[in-house]
Amino acid sequence: MNKQLSEALARLNELPDERQEAAAALLFEFLDGDDFELTPEQLAEIERRLEKDDIATDEEVKAFFARMKA
Length: 70
Fold this sequence. Notes:
Largest sheet: none
Mean pLDDT: 86
Number of strands: 0
Structural class: mainly alpha
Shape: extended
Number of helices: 4
């Protein structure tokens, strides 16, 4: 298991049971190859955040992905 997945699982273990079950359901959907669909609430949250002027610059996005590769 890679470090990032191990860290994610450690964080999941700290969540309440209800949140762990939701995370497990998402993981199983991913593993089964099902198409992932956002809930109406998730779509509304994305739209709300896009309306804000808090968009990452190209440099911030590049730095983020550089950290993810490490």
